[in-house]
């Protein structure tokens, strides 16, 4: 089949102007993992752990949080749970938990307790010997972004955003996400926490965020029972302008280059058509 010159150019122009398709969230990015140094010393424990994984994977197709316990024998049991971020789909949750089980086997093979946290979900299991480790609101992981340029105005904005977050989580089902002015802020608690426990955990996470990432344009704070994250967008806050301006300039340059190329291609097509008409 012969494809005309004009068809090729028009198709090329169409694809060049298609918006770039970025995934909603790279929820499979590994954020951190904690593995106990002590490992299982018998085959039955490993089999029970694999059975636990299969239970959690099966439940992740229908639920975003699930906790269960698998008995090894009359004296020993392994408890485990998974939780997905509330703003991802059930399909994404299922894929995330499947990947968690694979990562846990690779990163924490046969550890008597482990926690693997991806961007969109986490998995945690423990034996009775380690069961007390996850009951406090201690800091597990933090990521602080680039520092702000003008701190005073930024601090005032974040105080307002944090106050709104702490108020919002009280009236939620354990997940709260909002855009406050130029701040995208989010919090989520472990799925079976009571409202007051969830609120207390988020308050603790906010305090950690202020202390550990107080001058950062973005942050993720993970405690045992909850997490918070925030990110600055737009140009409302001094210090956020640098990245915004660079991205806007890059978009203008790329857009201009594309426009020039397509214009040149269309002119070439028209000239070719005129020549063809003259010869006819």
Automatic annotation (TrEMBL):
Superkingdom is: Eukaryota
Species this chain originates from: Vigna mungo (Black gram)
- Gene Ontology biological process terms in this record: plasmodesmata-mediated intercellular transport; transport of virus in multicellular host
Record key words, sorted? Cell junction, Disulfide bond, Host-virus interaction, Membrane, Repeat, Signal, Transmembrane, Transmembrane helix
Gnk2-homologous domain: from which residue to which, for each copy?
27-130, 136-235
Membrane protein topology class: Single-pass type I membrane protein
Which chain regions cross the lipid bilayer?
249-270
> Does Disulfide bond show up as a keyword for this record?
yes
One Gene Ontology cellular component: plasma membrane
Query: Which Gene3D superfamilies has this protein been placed in?
Result: Gnk2 domain, C-X8-C-X2-C motif (3.30.430.20)
Q: Please verify whether the record's keywords include Disulfide bond.
A: yes
Protein's recorded name: Gnk2-homologous domain-containing protein
Using the record, list the residue span of the signal peptide; answer none if the entry has no such feature: 1-23
Offer one Pfam family short name for this entry.
Stress-antifung
InterPro entries, from UniProt?
Cell2Cell_Antifungal, GNK2, GNK2_sf
Where is this chain's protein located in or outside the cell? Cell junction, Plasmodesma; Cell membrane
- What's this protein's family per the entry? Belongs to the cysteine-rich repeat secretory protein family. Plasmodesmata-located proteins (PDLD) subfamily.
């Amino acid at each position: 089949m012969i494809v005309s010159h004009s068809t090729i150019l028009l198709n090329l122009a169409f694809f060049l102007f298609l918006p770039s398709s970025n995934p909603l969230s790279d929820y499979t990015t590994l954020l951190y993992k904690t593995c106990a140094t002590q490992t299982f010393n018998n085959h039955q424990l490993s089999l029970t752990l694999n059975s636990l994984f299969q239970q959690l994977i099966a439940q992740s197709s229908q639920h975003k949080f699930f906790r269960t316990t698998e008995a090894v024998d009359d004296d020993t049991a392994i408890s485990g749970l998974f939780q997905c971020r509330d703003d991802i789909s059930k399909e994404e949750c299922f894929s995330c938990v499947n990947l968690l089980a694979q990562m846990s086997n690779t990163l924490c093979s046969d550890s008597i307790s482990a926690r693997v946290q991806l961007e969109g979900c986490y998995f945690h299991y423990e034996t009775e010997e380690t069961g007390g480790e996850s009951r406090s609101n201690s800091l597990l992981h933090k990521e602080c972004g680039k520092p702000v340029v003008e701190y005073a105005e930024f601090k005032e904005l974040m105080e307002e955003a944090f106050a709104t977050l702490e108020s919002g989580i009280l009236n939620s089902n354990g997940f709260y996400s909002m855009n406050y002015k130029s701040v995208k802020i989010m919090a989520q608690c472990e799925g079976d926490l009571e409202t007051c426990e969830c609120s207390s955990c988020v308050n603790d996470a906010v305090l950690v965020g202020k202390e550990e990432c107080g001058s950062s344009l973005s942050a993720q704070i993970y405690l045992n029972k909850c997490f918070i994250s925030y990110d600055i967008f737009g140009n409302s806050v001094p210090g956020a302008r640098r990245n915004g301006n660079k991205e806007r300039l890059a978009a203008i340059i790329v857009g201009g280059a594309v426009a020039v190329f397509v214009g040149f291609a269309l002119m070439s097509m028209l000239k070719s058509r005129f020549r063809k008409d003259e010869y006819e």
